[in-house]
Amino acid sequence: MNLTMISKSLLIALPMLALGACSSTTESEATKSASQQAATNTSENNNGVQTESIEVGDVIELTDEEIMVKEYTSAILESTILFDFDAATIKPQFATILDAHAKFLIDHPAKVVVIEGHTDAKGTPEYNIALGERRAASVATYLENMGVMSKQISVVSYGEEKPVNFEHNESGWAENRRAELTY
Questions:
Q1: Nearest 5 degrees, angle CA 60-CA 65-CA 70?
Q2: Is the overall model pTM greater than 0.90, yes or no?
Q3: 10-residue block means of pLDDT along the chain (183 residues)?
Q4: What are phi and psi of 110, to 5 degrees?
């Protein structure tokens, strides 16, 4: 009798267990499928072009100084004019840089520039001071011819006293034959 009751119970319980096992597999597959779908969506987002949405009200406003830096980046970054040996003539490749500085100074009449003339180590100190001054004056004349007011320009000659390259060879000397514009 006990054996009959146990077998009847097993006959009822086994199909229930089988149904339960099938239904739990379906749920886990559904969960797994949803996880895979989420992972696929994530990888698509990582592989695709990502765009950012910017609200109309999120426009970043630049300060006056930032606008000025953005507008005259080339003038600010390029402030060295190189010269040939024993010369104070401005080479044509530096005209664009000087034009940008002239435009900046014309647009901002309160700004002033100091033009520093430099030479290489060749020559006497007196000669180098005079050559540095001629180079700085050459740049000042160029800027004035472009419309910059003379009160915005100062000229200083350092001669050979402030080299940028301390090597005693032609490339080192060539870097030291310059005029620098500083604001």
A1: 70
A2: no
A3: 54 50 49 48 50 62 76 73 95 91 92 96 94 97 96 96 92 94 92
A4: -80, -15
